[in-house]
Amino acid sequence: MARRVIRKGGTVFDAKSARMHSVAPLTTARPSHPAVSAKVLVLNQSYEPISVCSAKKALLLMFLAKAELIEQRPEASVRTPRQHYPFPSVIRLCAYLRIPYKKIELSRKNILRRDNHRCQYCGTTSPPLTVDHVIPRSRGGADQWENLVCACVHCNNKKGSRTPEEANMRLATIPRRPHHVQFLKQFVGRVDETWRPYLFMD
Ligand SMILES: [Zn+2]
User: Fold this and answer.
1) How far is the CA of 119 from the centre of ligand 1 (A)?
2) Which of 33, 71, 150, 151 is the most exposed place for a label (fewest CB within 10 A)?
3) What tens digit of pLDDT does each residue of 135-189 get?
4) Does residue 35 lie in a domain region?
5) Quick check: 148 and 142 in contact, CB under 8 A?
């Protein structure tokens, strides 16, 4: 009597071989700790940080050989019925992904965001916060990232139409056009220790 075979897409296989080749689906992966929803930093092939995804998605990308493990969480692992896998913390895409980053729009909201809602003169984070022209507009100061900073009302009034040097008010940081990584950091909130080198924080 002929073996019972199943024809699928032109391939012949029987129940036995199908069983032999079956792999535990990813959905059965059970991390000991933390959860599969834990955040994983995704690096482009160039090691540039591009986004954050869930550990579940990171594992899927790794299983599909679309990403490789760069950093893992040493205290955790992912278990399937057959194997243990390292729990990802940072992964890197195997192919370079071209990402057309939208230019971050110059706006009051984004200036405050760039400066972490902190007055660049006195350091307060108490609202109301305003946008100050470092070189006042009346003195030819332009509306650009390099000339706009977050300032509290008190400092803005104190500085008036003077330059920081004239007012003897030092800026906490030199204002620059923000990079998407900076906003990514803010989006992420708490930064995992293993992410720091990849977010240019060391
Ligand atoms: Zn201030």
Assistant:
1) 5
2) 33
3) 999 999 999 999 999 999 999 999 999 999 999 999 999 999 988 877 787 777 7
4) yes
5) no
Ligand 1 geometric centre to CA of 126 (Å):
9
pTM for this one? 0.60
Residue 139 belongs to what domain range?
Answer: 108-167
158 CA distance to ligand 1 centroid (A)? 9
- Cα of 156 to ligand 1 centre, how many Å? 7
Ligand 1 midpoint to CA 154 (Å): 6
Based on the fold, state whether residues 163 and 185 are members of the same structural domain. no
CB neighbour burial string for 45-63, b if at least 16 within 10 angstroms, e if fewer: eeeebbebbebbbbbbbbe
Of 198, 200, 202, the closest CA to residue 42 belongs to 198
Tell me whether residue 57 is in a domain. yes
Residue type, 16: K
CA–centroid distance, residue 182 to ligand 1 (Å): 22
95 lies in a domain? yes
